[in-house]
Amino acid sequence: MNKLEAEFSNLVKAYRKRHMGKGPGRITTTFCKNWAICEMEGNLSPVEKFIAGAEDGKQMLREARTQWVKEIYRNHPPVEMEELLGARFLDLYVDIDIDKDFGMSIFVFDRVLPQS
Description:
It comes from Paenibacillus aurantiacus. The protein is of the alpha+beta class.
């Protein structure tokens, strides 16, 4: 991970903490074409871990997590990330494995990002 990717990771963590109350414990970002691919560990709060143990809890939590994150980015565009990269944010793809507490987010921008 180069310096720009590390800075992007820090912005993602701060953004999620600000808008969701908790950011991931660890983020690794890789730029590929016009994508910023973030691998995230330690996403779930203690309450979410408890919910995951209930019947249908994992599926409900996964759906809520993925849809909620996308909605937050739609309602609060990541201006700091756009400024860092000099690119406009277009879209976000999100998934999370509740059992592993591991998530992936792919940020799509309007231009090719610097490669590591």
